[in-house]
Amino acid sequence: MRPWTSLLPIAPLLILAAAPLPAENAEPTIAGDYLEARTADVYTGPCFANSEVNVAGREAVLAWRVTRGVWQGVPVDGLAVAAAIHVRATLGDPFGDRGPGHAVVVVDERATPAQRDALIAFAHTMAGDLLTDVTTIESAPMTLTINGAAASFQAGDLLELRTRALNHGDHLCGNEEVYYPPLTDTVSAVPAVTLAHTFRGTGLGMTWSSPNKRSAFVGRFAR
Fold it and tell me: Which residues contact 181 (CB under 8 A, 6 or more apart)?
């Protein structure tokens, strides 16, 4: 398996995702903060990555907080939406048959019915086939704060993510790199260590807690 890209083992680390930047002088329709965590390392060496393939990494949480923007003609400034995802193979493995994604979507409880529909549609657009089968849609109080690679996300009692920046102590084998790209388009994404990563909801037939892994991306999105 080829890694996504290579990085020098220093922090902070900044990776530009594959998505192109908005055209010059073109304002994005929607923009904001993005946080992702998986149950497998995304910043790692081949030996660690290969040991996790088809063993870990089938689950992830994706969270977006809109700082400004409109979706489907509906203003959604300041609102958040998130998805907890489960597939049948390690996310990002080009040789794995992960099949359609099964997901629980959580929408900011402050959203009006029109904003709720717009946020759900936005999440579908951003996550693509990872949201093929949305088993449950929940509403919850949601907060997402980002300070560099340090981030904190809470969606009621359903979802919790906390991250910190990578440091030299996180280079366990000396040849770590960004092995997997983010699961959705971003303007920028920084790999980070996941201090907390929990899903306590229903709808996926499972819950999980996967802390203390190099398994997060912290960044921004714009479309």
Answer: 4, 5, 17, 18, 92, 189
Q: Where are the domains of the chain?
A: 30-209
Tell me the per-residue pLDDT of 141-166, one tens digit each, with 9 for 90 and over.
Answer: 999 999 999 999 999 999 999 999 99
Rounded Cα distance, 116 and 106, in Å: 10
Q: What is the pTM of this model?
A: 0.86
Tell me the C-alpha distance between 119 and 111, whole Å. 9
Buried residues in 98-120 as b, exposed as e (16+ CB within 10 A) = beebbbbbbbbeebeeebbebbb
Tokens of 151: 């981030």
Q: Give the span between the Cα atoms of 120 and 107, in whole angstroms.
A: 7
